[in-house]
Structures are given as C-alpha cells and as structure tokens.
Amino acid sequence: MYLKKPFWSGAIDDSGPPPPVLELVKSLDQKRLYREVTLALRNGLREAVAEFSFIRIRGLRSLLKFLRSVTENDSTISLFCHSQTIPELQVVPVLFQHTLKDVEDPTVDDLNHIFGVEPVKITSPSTDAEVAVALRVLEGCCLLHRESTILANQHRAIQVLMNILSTRGVLEQGACLDALIAIMLDSSSNQLDFEVCNGIEEVSLIIRDKQVDENLRLKCGEFLLLLIGHVHGRDVPPMMTIHEDVRRFLGEKSASLIWAASQFGSTLNPDERVTALHIQARRVLESIDIY
C-alpha cells in the first residue's frame, strides 16, 4: 500500500489560511497518515502470519511496498517508528516467528488429532522467495527504526541469518548480507553475536570459493567493506579484532586492500558511494583470486 497525499494538500499555503485553520488541517492530515500507516501494517501482518506460504509472501510484499513508501518523508518515518512501539503492530517479531523460524520436524508423535475432532494445524514451509522478501523487510525495519535491531536480537537474529547464509541459495544469501549490515549498525549486542557465530570466517569462506556465484562473492566484498568502514578504529569489543580476523582468513594483501578501500567516499553523494563500493568490491575479489 502506498501512502496517498490528501487532495487538499496542494492547495494549502502557509500565507493563505489563518494559523488556527492551518493547524487544524495539519492535525487532520497527521491523523489521516497515522490511520493509513496502521491500516497498511495490520493488513500486511495479517497475511504474514498465515499458514500458507503464498499468502505470507503476499503480506510480506505488501509490507515491503509500504516501507518503501514510508521513506518519502520524515513525517511518515516518524509515524512508522511510533507504530513499532505497539506490540500488535511490530513487524520484526512476526518475521522471526513465521517466515524466518527454523523448520520444525514434521514427525507426528501424538495421534490424538486422528481420533479426535480437532484437526492438526499444518503450516507450509517458507519458500526461497518468501525468505528473501522477509529479509528485505527486516532490513528496511532496522534502517528506519533503530529499536527494531533490539527486537531482532531478542529473536536470535544473527544466529538465524548466519544459518540462512550457510544453507540457503544465492537469492536469500544476497538479501541476508544486506540484512546483517542493517541489524548490526550501532548494535553492539548483534555485533557480539556475529563474532560468536564466527561471521567473518563464514563470509570469507564464501568470498574465497570460486565455485560460488560471482555476484554473491561481490556482495560479500561489499559487506566486508561496509562493516570494516563502520567499526574502523574501535579498540574495545565487539569487533575489536576484525582486522586480524580478515587478515587470517583472506591474507595480508587482501586484508590491507579491504582496510584501505573501506575508508572511501565520506564526501561522495549516495549514487557515487554505491558506484565506488562496487568498484572496490571488484578489486577485493580480484586480489583474492590472484593471491
């Protein structure tokens, strides 16, 4: 669902209506936006908890579309952040309780449902596409609402995502790397979990494997550049030994290149930073292939 602008918004001018009228219009507009935000969240979350994957992915795509529309202005971002303080509107717990949860053992130990009147509840497993969309929704929530990283940590997000990174396909792995960056930004608890899970080693194994899809290896290079650039210069845990870890798993030359390249682009605009990131990740990959 896209958030719509009110039909009267284009006709309002600060120099036009008297201040009381203008304040009333702004108040009504704020209430309208809040109703649309809560409605979009309720509709998406209702389908995201369904028993069948095709319904869940429809709800997740609706939530992702909603998050993209939220970023259009600060007002809707603020309303979304406020909505995430309300338990029944929180997105992150739903993701981990339904789509990103571990697959349960289908073995039936209790046969009472066969002889009774209550049917057994069957939930279809998450498809690759569903997991990938859920990871994009997780990424968006954590980037827009920093407290969502705390909710993610409460659901063992790093452990779940590292399992996805090591067992799922290229589609989910690429989305997983982006989600990892989002939930670790300014979150020492998630960064600590990443260290405990030997995250640098897992990413290094992928980037060194020439049998892996090249785009995924490039994504791993971008991940290391962004992560090291974010925690550069840290002399206290977590991530205090990240440079030594990269050097141990990728070699001295590649580690030095990653460290130097991770300092790029502080004065670049967003488009230039993305281009520079792609170029530097390509150089990192080439250095690993050479040495």
Describe the structure.
The chain is mainly α. 68% of the residues lie in helices and 0% in strands. It has helices at 19-48, 53-70, 74-83, 92-99, 112-115, 128-144, 148-154, 157-167, 170-184, 188-196, 199-208, 214-231, 242-250, 252-261, 270-290. The radius of gyration is 22 Å and the shape is globular. The N and C termini lie far apart (49 Å). The model is unreliable at 103-108 (pLDDT under 50).
How many E-type strands? 0
Reading the helices and strands in chain order gives HHHHHHHHHHHHHHH
* Strand coverage percent: under 5%
Give the overall silhouette. globular
Low-confidence region ranges: 103-108
Q: Give me the oligomer status.
A: single chain
What's the rounded overall pLDDT mean? 85
Structural class of the secondary elements?
mainly alpha
Give the distance, in angstroms, between the N- and C-terminal Cα atoms.
Answer: 49 Å
State the share of residues found in helices, binned by percent.
55-70%
Q: Main β-sheet, in a few words?
A: none
Number of helices: 15
- Specify Rg, calculated over alpha carbons: 22 Å
